[in-house]
Amino acid sequence: MAVIRMPENFLWGGAVAANQFEGGWKEDGKGPSIADMCTSGSPEHPKLITRTIRSDCLYPSHEASDFYHRYEEDIALMGEMGFKVFRLSINWTRIFPTGMEKEPNEKGLEFYDRVFACCRQHGIEPLVTISHYEMPYALVEKYNGWHSREVIDLFLNYCKVLFERYKDDVKYWLTFNEINAGTNHVLGAMISLGTVQGYEGAGIQAPSDLTVRYQALHHQFVASAKAVIYAHENYPQFRMGNMICFLTRYPFTCDPEDVLACQAEMRRLNWFCSDVMCRGEYPFYAKRFFEEKGIVIKQEQGDTEILKKGTVDFYTHSFYQTNCITTHSGAETSAGNMGGGAKNPYLESSEWGWQIDAKGLRYALNEIYERYHMPVMVVENGLGARDTVELDGSIHDLYRINYLRRHIEEMKEALHDGVDLIGYTPWGCIDLVSASTGEMSKRYGFVYVDKNDDGTGTLNRIRKDSFYWYQKVIRTNGEDLS
């Protein structure tokens, strides 16, 4: 049996998002983002979004894990693990507090100067997401978020500032995090005043209107393509990527109706956005879908050419779980990122009901690479679980180690299949606030952050058993997964 080895230059690391990790929400001129207006929650009591900051609510992003003040300690921990790459996002409102300023906030730029310098000291390559669910709240109020085309130029101005400032610090860029969240008709990726429905990707206040939703998505497509074109023309050293929440779906039965329904879900959830960003045009199946849903998108002259020219250089995605699709009633349901489905009887589930399917990652990687033939990175993956700090301060998270081991084993199989897999950044490498619920107790990290769901705690960092395990994995380039 052939020994499967990871490429020598494989990018091992971890991932976070500014709005879930950074904190410092009002410091040094930062303005409020969508995330800053979101309260804490739980599976039983969903997050809310408020027009003003209320004294009777907890807003987790305001302090989060306090990376803003502890970045040196955190990056040193990543360096100790041996990270080759650190996926982080830049807080848009730290650079442009309302998104509409003509000049950037210098103190915000200086913060990321320090972060990237610290990464450089530890030999870590930054992988930067430009927009990760932290759109300026002022753009929600004035423009209804990405529904208005005016936001494209504001975003491009933001990108130009980042590119010029960090041209010597950052090589890998992702334009929008999980841009396909907007195609989920059940939870969506938008906000509605009063209730947060899923993730806060587009900042529109009428998420149930599909034309509004897909119009916003079109504007994000154009904005991403324009940013890619500008980067390619002015900074040829940059590598520009997309980011998709990959939601593997299986037919629940061999009934052809289930197979067709599953195909439709895979197209809508997984392929629609990446077809535009990787191939440069709306897919053939979009026309019928828009007609049947009554969706009418307004495109301006030149949009077709922009999308065709502004395709990305590499593909990235998150992968947490899989679900089944059925047209039959009575199937047991399961939870999941951006929605659930029929429960797969062959899989186990996490405490939050997300089904664990490492082989589904191998399947996804093969499907992605077969479709696009470009380098692929898994930039989010991990197990949300409750961790217990023992009396001696240790944290024994064998459940997390087992989860990650199984997924790395399947990544090796995908490499052996021929997939050009270039990196892996497990989610929440240091504990952060859950995006879906606003909880701190749903932990993903190799490093424990002493903070509770009610906002109390010392914020001290504690290495978990998985910290030392991942350190060994990186040191051996994936050879030793024991």
Structure notes:
- This is 6-phospho-beta-glucosidase.
- Keywords: Glycosidase, Hydrolase.
- GO terms for molecular function: beta-glucosidase activity.
- It holds the Pfam family Glyco_hydro_1.
- The chain is an alpha/beta fold.
- It has one domain: TIM Barrel, CATH 3.20.20.
- The chain is about 35% helix and about 15% strand.
- The chain has helices spanning about 20, 65-80, 90-95, 105-120, 135-145, 150-165, 210-235, 255-280, 285-295, 305-310, 360-370, 400-415, 465-475, and strands spanning about 10-15, 85-90, 125-130, 170-175, 190, 195, 240, 245, 250, 315-320, 325, 335, 340, 350, 355, 375-380, 420-425, 445-450, 460-465.
- The chain has a nine-stranded parallel sheet.
- The longest helix has 25 residues, at about 210-235.
- The protein is globular and about 65 Å long.
- The relative contact order is 0.14.
- The model is unreliable at about 185-200 (pLDDT under 50).
Keywords:
482 residues, alpha/beta, TIM Barrel, nine-stranded parallel beta sheet, 13 helices, 36% helix, hydrolase, 6-phospho-beta-glucosidase, glycosidase, beta-glucosidase activity
